[in-house]
Amino acid sequence: MDDVHANSGCRMPSINFCSQCGSEVEQKIPLGETLLRAVCPACQMIHYQNPKIVAGCIPEWEGQILLCRRAIEPRLGLWTFPAGFMELGESTEEAAARETLEEANATVTIHSLYGIFSLPHVSQVYVVYRAALQDLEFGPGEESLEVRLMSIESIPWEHLAFPVIRETLRRYVEDVGTTHAQVHFGTVSPSRRSVVNSSASWLSNGPSPSINHPAE
Amino acid sequence: MDDVHANSGCRMPSINFCSQCGSEVEQKIPLGETLLRAVCPACQMIHYQNPKIVAGCIPEWEGQILLCRRAIEPRLGLWTFPAGFMELGESTEEAAARETLEEANATVTIHSLYGIFSLPHVSQVYVVYRAALQDLEFGPGEESLEVRLMSIESIPWEHLAFPVIRETLRRYVEDVGTTHAQVHFGTVSPSRRSVVNSSASWLSNGPSPSINHPAE
C-alpha cells in the first residue's frame, strides 16, 4: 500500500488552496520565519511541507536476504528490499514491518537499526532496519511480481530499483564479515556522489570517515 | 524557525479541501490501498498525510553539552537540545545543524548518529545526532531565552521540555563512561512506558534488549 506514493520520486506538489477552508493561499514568509510558506489569508493557516520517511528493512534468513521485484511503476520489474512511506500513528519499526508484510507477505522481527539516508532531491529520508524473517512463508504482495530469498552473492546489482537501495545493500555486503557494529547515515543523490558515514564507535569523539563513491 | 510547528504536539489537521484545485475532498480508500485518504473528486488527487521528522543534535564541548531554554510555547522556559522540523531539500544532518544555528547561534560539526525515536502519538520521528561545537560563540536565538553549556551533572532533569528530550539525555548520560558504540532507536510515549533499543552490536544477530522505564 502507498508504495507508488513512496517511490514515485516526486517532489512535493505546490499548494494552491487552503486545505482547511478552501481559500486561495498566498506565498509569504510568516512572522519569525525565514522561508516562503503557503499561508491562508482567510483562516491564517500556515501550510508546512516537510520531507517524508520511507521505512524499510532487510529481512534475513540464514545468511540470505529477502528482496522483492516491483510490480508497479516507477522501476517496474526491478528489485528492492521491502520499504514504503510511514503512516500517521506508527513507529518507524512498525512501518518497516508492515511494508514487509504488504509487499512480501512476510513476518519479520525488527532487531537493529541499519541506517538512515537522506535523499534531499526528493525530500525523502530512508530509515532502514535489519530484521529476522520469522519463517519461510512469503510471497508476492500486490505490489510485487516476485519475492526471493537470495544469498549475498546473488544480489542483482544491475537490476536494483533505486540508488538508495543499491547504496544500502552495497554497505550491507561490505559489513557482512566484519565484527564491529555499524549504523550508517548520510546523503544519497541520484546522479552525483553520495556521502555516507558510519556511527560505528561514537565514543571515539572524532568525525567519522566520509566515504565517497559514485552512485548511479 | 518553525519551532512552534515542530514542538506543538499537534496532530495532523484534517483535510477538508483539495490544495490543488480547491474542491471539497471525500474520505475514501483509494484502489489498491487499505486506509482512508482525503481524495479530490474533481482532480483525483490523493492527499497523503505522513509523520514529520524533527532533527536535532547534542552539541558537545569538552565533556559539556549545549542546551537551550525555550522562549516559545509550548513548554516555554523549559530546556531542550537544539531540534526542529526538517525542511524540504535538506538532509537530516543539515537540518540538525541549521536548527542549532537558529536556536543557539552555534556552529556544529555533526559527527555521529545518536538515535531515532518515534512518537506515534504526535506522528513525529526525532533523529538525533552527536555534534562537536566548533567554538564558544553561542547565545540565544529568537526562540531561546537562554543557551548554556552544561556538565552532565547539571542537566536540569526536572525542567526538560519534552519526554523525548528526557529519554535521549537519560540514555546519553548512561552511555558516557561506556566504551562501546550505541545508536538508539525506539518509541517514546508521553505518559505510558517508552521502549528504546540500542543497535550497539548489530552483527550479534540477536534481538536487542528492550528497556522499559516510566516516561512522564
Report on the architecture of this protein.
The structure is a homodimer of 216-residue chains. Chain A has a domain at 52-202: Nucleoside Triphosphate Pyrophosphohydrolase. In chain A, 14% of the residues lie in helices and 34% in strands. Chain A has helices at 3-7, 92-104, 163-175; strands at residues 26-28, 37-39, 46-47, 52-61, 64-70, 79-80, 83-85, 108-119, 124-133, 144-151, 184-187, 193-198, 211-214. Chains A and B meet through strand 3, strand 4, helix 2, strand 8 and strand 9 of A and strand 3, strand 4, helix 2, strand 8 and strand 9 of B.
- Assign the structural class of chain A, choosing from mainly alpha, mainly beta, alpha/beta, alpha+beta, or little secondary structure: alpha+beta
**What's the count of strands of chain A?**
13
Helix-strand sequence of chain A: HEEEEEEEHEEEHEEE
Residue windows where pLDDT falls under 50 for at least 5 positions of chain A: 1-10, 200-216
The DSSP helix count of chain A reads 3
> CATH class of one domain in chain A, anyone?
Alpha Beta
Measured distance between first and last alpha carbons of chain A? 27 Å
Radius of gyration over C-alpha positions of chain A, nearest whole angstrom? 19 Å
Strand fraction of chain A equals: 25-35%
User: What oligomeric state is this?
Assistant: homodimer
Outline of chain A: elongated
Kindly report the CATH topology of one domain in chain A. Answer: Nucleoside Triphosphate Pyrophosphohydrolase
Q: What characterizes the major β-sheet of chain A?
A: 10 strands, mixed
What is the name of the CATH architecture of one domain in chain A?
Answer: Alpha-Beta Complex
Helix content of chain A: 10-25%
Give the name of the CATH superfamily of one domain in chain A. Answer: Nucleoside Triphosphate Pyrophosphohydrolase
- Biggest interface, which chains? A-B, 76 and 75 residues
What's the rounded overall pLDDT mean of chain A? 86
